[in-house]
Amino acid sequence: MSTSLLVLSRECPDRLGWYAQGAPSSGTSTRVWVHDAAGSHFDEVDEPSYWENVWAKVEADSAGSPQNVGEIRRVKTYTPGSASFSLATGRGFTSTPTPTMTVGFYKAVPPGTRWGSTPGWTHYINRVLRSIRYRRYSILSLVTDGDMETSGVTNWTATSATLTKITAAANLTLGSTSLRVANSGTNGLARSALINVAPGDTYSLRADLRVASGTGELEAYDQTNSAVIESETSTYPDWRYLAFNFTIPTGCLSLSIRLKGQEATADVYWDNVSLRHTKARQMDLPSWVDNPGAVEGLYQYRGGAGVTAGADAGLWMGQHLTPIPYDDIIAEVTAATAYRIAFSWLPKADALLMVRGLGPHAELSVDADTTVADKDLVELGACALAAADHEDPRAEQFLADYNARLPFLPYAERWIASGQPAL
Predict the structure, then answer these.
(1) Percentage of the chain with pLDDT > 70?
(2) Minimal CA–CA distance to 147: which of 279, 14, 318, 273?
(3) How far, in Å, are 39, 112, 119, 166 from residue 9 at the CA level?
(4) What pTM was estimated for this model as a whole?
(5) CA 95 to chain centre
(6) Do 266 and 183 contact (CB within 8 A), yes or no?
(7) Rounded Cα–Cα distance for residues 125 and 365 (Å)
(8) Would the pLDDT of 417 be above 50?
(9) What is the CA radius of gyration of the chain?
């Protein structure tokens, strides 16, 4: 189950009693409005000092044309008798607050990453997400975004097709997303980023595909000479793979991988596009490997059945993981990819080369961003950090609750490698 940054940012301060929510009942300007939520836990005489310097964030607006959503301002004064808030002159919301808006009030810790020099809830939440790990597999490939796990389709160039990343379970093999290539004309395709090559070198190419309509075609393409080097096709309506070896022709210095649908109505889902030099003994590790200790193992994966052009569709053969011994994790701290893995064992030509390890959860930046990290664990950790920074004695209890929950989560682990404290 995923949780949004907005929910985490609300529930963390709520655990500390540092959050309230309401809607403006009126607004006379962009700087003054009336709060219609329940009063604070303080007596009325204490409320002016309680609400002073509290951050107000417009979290939602149900109006047909939403206004101010996501804007954060700081309260200057609060008048208990009229329950009205005033902001500093010239520091108002863009539009006058209205009753259709939901406003969150944050005490001590602001929403967002920070307010001036004051860290915000996004800062604390992301510190926890960087510190807990989950077990994951990634393919090793020379194709940028070959595993289709990068958000968006900017690593793929469309021709006569619409490209979208898909998360529906029926359209996935490994990981959380696949690439849909829906044609708008014949031979519509998605082209990978260009790969520098040398004539005479040999490569192994493999990709998973599910053909919803038409004919799917996997191509190794000579970009230098605008010619197809090798290709395979499938019309199978469920997941299978295409795989072949090929040699870089004379004069070819630039290669691309093209995921094509032959017919104008072709609709094909693609995943796990793997390209390896057949003699490679080192490959870049995925970006989530931020420490050599994050790698747990190297594997050969051979799911599905071999394919040749015009062959019978065959059957999905299931998942087959074979451990591969590896020699070393090589640090290249100044390179685009920080770590490489060295191995002596040669994988099968039609296999995916995969690494298993413990990767950090992705950080969140906007309210709609979500994480599948354990919600209670993230909130307890963020509250421990925020309370400690504000010298709140409850910090120790939050940390104790965080540590008590950690062992019960099979895919979340305290990161104990050197220089990587859990919190």
Answers:
(1) 90
(2) 273
(3) 21, 8, 13, 27
(4) 0.79
(5) 33
(6) yes
(7) 10
(8) no
(9) 27
